[in-house]
């Protein structure tokens, strides 16, 4: 899948082991407690029940650059978002919106009817993104983030509607 912008293209595709190095850099730049490379290796090994996707930025004549990643666990009919991050230099270009919509759309094809995630209560950028999808806060996990002693908001999107997700993937 490709989408044209003034400067380049975004391509959304499944993650491979060759993506681990740029993904580690994105995680380090994005989180207080980033996922380790071994966490992604484990996710990739669970090829059934775990969706691992990346967004690549393509700007010829440069080689494609992995600029975002997402992991979603499928637990029965639930899509649980494990991690989602965009490289700081590439934020604000709708990459997270399109990547998350794409992976949730894939999840619906595999039987997911709703999605669940935890987010730091202070993470305004992520809350903007999730509000755009229609996620609703359904609970608080006290002290969930041990690194800063912060609470997590528990958010769900129920139901997942493939037509709406398809629009969020394609809508530039
Ligand atoms: C949260 C994060 C993934 C958003 O990535 P992004 O690619 O910049 O987000 P997008 O450009 O796709 O924004 C999606 C929507 O959210 C809204 N949004 C995102 N950031 C916003 C901001 N700073 N202010 C206002 N609205 C914002 C916009 O409405 C946007 O809609 P649009 O695509 O129609 O313009 C990114 O900031 C990030 O990697 N943060 C660090 C890691 C993180 O917090 N991950 C989430 C963990 S729960």
From TrEMBL:
What Pfam family is a match for this entry? Acetyltransf_1
Which CDD domains does the annotation name?
A: NAT_SF (cd04301)
Q: Which E.C. number(s) belong to this protein?
A: 2.3.1.-
Q: Which residues form the N-acetyltransferase domain?
A: 10-160
Sorted keywords for this record are:
Acyltransferase, Cytoplasm, Transferase
Recorded GO terms, molecular function? N-acetyltransferase activity
Family, per the entry? Belongs to the acetyltransferase family. RimI subfamily.
Name recorded for this polypeptide: Putative acetyltransferase
Q: Which organism is it from?
A: Candidatus Brevifilum fermentans
Classification from the root reads: Bacteria, Bacillati, Chloroflexota, Anaerolineae, Anaerolineales
């Amino acid at each position: 899948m490709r989408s044209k912008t003034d400067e380049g293209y975004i391509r959304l595709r499944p993650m491979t082991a060759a993506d681990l190095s740029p993904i580690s850099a994105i995680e380090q730049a994005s989180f207080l407690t980033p996922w380790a490379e071994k966490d992604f290796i484990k996710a990739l090994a669970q090829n059934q029940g775990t969706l691992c996707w990346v967004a690549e930025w393509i700007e010829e004549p440069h080689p494609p650059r992995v600029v975002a990643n997402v992991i979603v666990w499928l637990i029965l009919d639930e899509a649980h978002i494990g991690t989602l991050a965009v490289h700081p230099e590439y934020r604000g270009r709708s990459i997270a919106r399109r990547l998350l919509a794409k992976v949730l759309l894939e999840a619906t094809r595999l039987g997911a009817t709703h999605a669940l995630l935890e987010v730091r209560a202070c993470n305004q950028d992520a809350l903007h993104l999730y509000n755009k999808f229609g996620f609703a806060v359904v609970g608080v996990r006290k002290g969930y983030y041990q690194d800063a002693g912060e609470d997590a908001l528990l958010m769900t999107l129920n139901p997942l509607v493939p037509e709406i997700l398809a629009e969020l993937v394609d809508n530039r």
